[in-house]
Amino acid sequence: MRIAGRRVGADAPVFIIAEACDNHMGSLDAAKEMCLQAKLAGCDCIKFQHHLPDEEMLPNVPMSSNFDIPLYEFLKRYALTLDQHEELLKHCDEIGIMYLCTPFSLKAAYELDELGVPAFKIGSGEMDDIPTLRAIAKLEKPMIVSTGMATFEEIERTYAALSSSGISFALMNCLSEYPPRYEDVNLGVIVQMRDSFPNAIIGHSDHTPDLFTTFASVALGAKIIEKHVILDKRTPGPDQAVSIDFFEMRELVDGVRKVEAALGSQKKVHQAEQGIREWAHRSIVSLVDIPAGTIISQDMVWSKRPGTGIPSYRMEEVIGQVVTRDIRANTLIAWNDLAQESL
C-alpha cells in the first residue's frame, strides 16, 4: 500500500500515526502545535477527525463515558471546521509531516477528498457501515480501518467488501475501551488477522495509557501503529485518559524502531559476537601433566575457557588418543598434540 508515495506494510518501516482526535478542544493553535510536536517526535503522520454532527448522528445520541457532555453538543462546540482542516493540511505540508483525517460521515469524506487527503482513516464505529465504506472506496484512496467493538465475522464482512472494491486497505486491531483492561487487548488477534486477511495490511490502534502493548504489537507483525496524543496530560480532552504526551511519543517512536531492528529471523554468529565467542566458549584442556606417548583418559581432560582450542563437544574424539608431546596441566589440547590429527 502506498499513501502519498509512502510505502506502508510488507517490509516497509512501521507507519506511526499520532492520533490528535479532538484533544485540541477546538483550538487551531493547539492543533498546529500538535502537528509540530508529532513531527519532532518522529511520527510519520498526524491524524485529526472531521465531524459534521448533523450528518453524523441524531442529537440525542447517548453520552459516551469519556465525555462529560453529550457527544452531539461537544462536537458542535469543539469540532474543527473544514477551513481549519485545510489550514492544518497546509501546515503539515510546510513542516513535513503527513496529514490524515477520519471522516465520520460520507459528506465529511467527500469534503476531505476535495481537500486532497491522501488516504482515509475509518473509525471503529463506521467499520461495519458497508454502504458508506463502499462509497468512500469509490474515491480510490487507501483506507485504514479500525476494528474495535467488532466480532471477527463483522471484520470478515468488511474485509470482503473492501477486497472487492479494488482499493488498498489496512485493518487495525483495536479495542474501544477508554482505557482498556490489558486482558481485553488480545494482541494475538494481530496474528489471526494476518493469517486470515492476506489482502490487508494489519496494524494496531492502541488505547492503553502506556507503551508496552504498542511494542508487543510490532513484534507480532503490526505494520501501522496509531496512538492517541495530547499536548499536556493535565489539560482536558475527550481522550485524555488514553493519550500519551509527546515526550512519551518520542519514546514510542524510538522503541518501535528498535523493536523493528530486532525482528530478524536468521540465527547466526554475528561479527560482533565472534570475539566474545572466542573467550566464552569451552575447549578441551589438560587437567594433569600428560607425558608424550600417554593414551588420554577421561580423568585427564575437561572443558575450560577460552574457546580457541578443540571444541568441548569433540571430547569423545580426543579420549583414547595418544599424545605426541609432553603436555603440562591446564593447557589447551591441540589436534597436532595427538597421534591421529585428522580426527
Question: How is the secondary structure organized here?
Answer:
Layout (H helix, E strand, L loop, with lengths): L1 E2 L2 E2 L7 E7 L6 H14 L3 E6 L2 H4 L14 H8 L3 H14 L2 E6 L2 H10 L4 E3 L7 H8 L5 E4 L5 H14 L3 E6 L7 H4 L2 H9 L4 E6 L5 H8 L4 E5 L17 H16 L9 H10 L2 E4 L14 E4 L10 H4 L25
Parallel strand pairs: 3-4, 3-10, 4-5, 6-7, 7-8, 8-9, 9-10
Antiparallel strand pairs: 1-2, 11-12
Jot down its keywords:
8-stranded parallel sheet; alpha/beta; CMP-N-acetylneuraminic acid synthetase; TIM Barrel; Type Iii Antifreeze Protein Isoform Hplc 12; 343 residues; PseI/NeuA/B-like_N
What does this structure look like?
One of its GO terms (molecular function) is N-acylneuraminate-9-phosphate synthase activity. This is CMP-N-acetylneuraminic acid synthetase. Residues 283-341 form the AFP-like domain. InterPro entries: AFP_Neu5c_C_sf, Aldolase_TIM, PseI-like, PseI/NeuA/B-like_N, SAF, SAF_AFP_Neu5Ac, SAF_PseI/NeuA/NeuB. Pfam families: NeuB, SAF. The strands form three sheets. The chain has an eight-stranded parallel sheet. It has a two-stranded antiparallel sheet with strand order 1-2. Helix 1 runs parallel beside helix 4, helix 1 packs parallel to helix 11 and helix 6 (130-137) packs parallel to helix 7 (152-165). It folds into two domains: 10-263, Aldolase class I (TIM Barrel); 272-337, Alpha-Beta Complex (Type Iii Antifreeze Protein Isoform Hplc 12), CATH 3.90.1210. The radius of gyration is 30 Å and the shape is elongated. Helices cover 36% and strands 16% of the residues. The model has no long low-confidence stretch (mean pLDDT 95). It contains 13 helices and twelve strands. With 343 residues, it is α/β, with parallel strands linked by helices. The chain has helices spanning 28-41, 53-56, 71-78, 82-95, 106-115, 130-137, 152-165, 182-185, 188-196, 212-219, 246-261, 271-280, 315-318; strands at 2-3, 6-7, 15-21, 45-50, 98-103, 120-122, 143-146, 169-174, 201-206, 224-228, 283-286, 301-304.
